[in-house]
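Hi all, long-time lurker, first post. I run a small reading group and we've been trying to get comfortable going from sequence to structure in the token notation. Rather than ask abstract questions, I figured I'd post a concrete chain and ask someone more experienced to write out its structure so we can walk through it together at our next meeting. Sequence below, copied exactly:
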Amino acid sequence: MTESWRRRDWWVRCVPAGYSAVLALLILGPLLGSGYLLLRDAVSTPRSYLTDSALGLGDAAPRAVPQDAVLAVLSPVIDGGLIVKAILLVALWAAGYGAAVLARELLGAPIGAQLVATTVALWNPYVAERLVQGHWSLLAGYAALPWVALAAYRIRTDGAAGTWAGLAGCLAAAGLTPTGALLAGVTALSLAGRRYVAGVLALLVAASVPWLTATALSGAAGEPSDPAGIAAFAARAEPGLGTLGSLAGLGGIWNGDAVPDSRTTLLALIGTLLLLAVVATGVRSVISDGGDRYVRRALVVLAALAILLPALGATPWGTHVLEWLVAHVPGAGLLRDTQKYVALAMPAYALCAAAGCGVLARRFSTAPASAATDNAQRTDDPSLPSSGFDRVPKLSTTVTGTVATILIALLVLPLLDLAWGAGGALRPVHYPAGWQQVADRMDDSGDVAVLPGGMFRKFRYSGTAPVLDPAPRLLPRDVLQTGELPVRGRTVSGEGTRARTVETLLLHGGSARELADQGVGWILLERGTPGPLGESKTTLAQLDPVFGDADLALYRVPGPIRQHAGSATDRGIAIAAHAVWAALLLGGLLLATRIRRTR
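-- Answer (accepted) --
Happy to help. Here is the structure in token form:
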């Protein structure tokens, strides 16, 4: 390997990595200041605790496993808000850079085309809408997809130990949430081929073991979800696009309030048409040009299914099918927000956009034909597969760079308000000091119930959007939550049966003795936020006030409290499952990096 090749390789790798970092910083800008992410479903806190709920052993389905346990373990050492910001920033960077590396290895794409792939992976409605909805950990699974695809491709080509280690680490990273694990698992199983299915399945189970274990131990596996969630979370049509067009444009989230302003105007149509035009320009090149075409074709098919199936799920008959599944098949509730599976289209979109850049550059180039592209435009990596980029007329740096710049501008401008925190939607908040004082006054006497009823809040310090109650993360005891979600004017029932019983007791003025029998030792009243209070004054009058300020009031339930905590055995098993996941994540990524550097 010559010194000039080393310098060129360094340049080829660093430019896409730096560009991805710039886009990630531009998107997250205001969130990186002091404070905490508190927006709709996103809750970051200075410190969280390893409660039964954090391990997935609570009353409700373990949807935030292992993410809550990770924060509970790390936040005593590193500020929890900083951890969430770091994960989100690394996730966005990894999504963009992963798309560039995928285009380089599967297509032999030059730098300009790699930057187009990065732009498609980062600057799109899916990223914008999931950020505004607060799905930061889902974006970690999204970011893993190009790397999972790359690992599956490498397994097919060499099957080396380092490649399997890389796949293990990527699957674990995606498995920060159950949905992320499913996204990565579908991608890996679709690309690796039948010969490697058993190995991929084994790694996927290991990466998913925290939430699989929690589901089995908590009994949530035996409880079906509310069928009303299917219609409530169905993909939504955006202006001028219809449901299918919205999904094809990587948009269509169920919550119309969780979108940038540009997606409520004609810009949604313009941006979608431009994205699809760029992608369509490169499809033929991706699926037909030389080399190992299986992975590229499989990615395109996966993208088509990821768009068509959620669109069918939003039709009347598709809704009926999904409602039957969630009502009769335990665990099928993971399918209710079908739009999130559009993430599976991202790797193929990035590849096709990169190939489209090459197609357009060839059309506009006036340079003489050559058997290979200009060395300044190629990666010159002899390990790259044969592809359309190495059998096209010689392209000048100017032509390729100009085409890439134009495509990037066309992709960015219709969604310009993704910049700087999705138009300012992502703003850090600061919790009042009363939260820490409440946490300090709690001992081990029972779980916590909260008032007003419901799981969502509007605090004076959190902005105008509803936010998930931060109490379960801020307090050292398990906080009972019903899991009921207000969506599109209807309420989707959750799995928290004990929490629902306790909330009913509070709203109907139940006695302190009844609360104690339900294992409730504390009542937290969150002042100033809308929500039902019912006859709770009758109940609160029977309790012992412990703390009060303008935002919070804490009451202790007197007398002996019946314990409802999970067994020590269950906690030990759940902690061991999380340890397996952590070992897979850290060990897989470190081993893959070391082996690849050695090679």
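A couple of things your group might point at:
Residues 367-388 have pLDDT under 50 and may be disordered.
The two ends are 13 Å apart (CA to CA).
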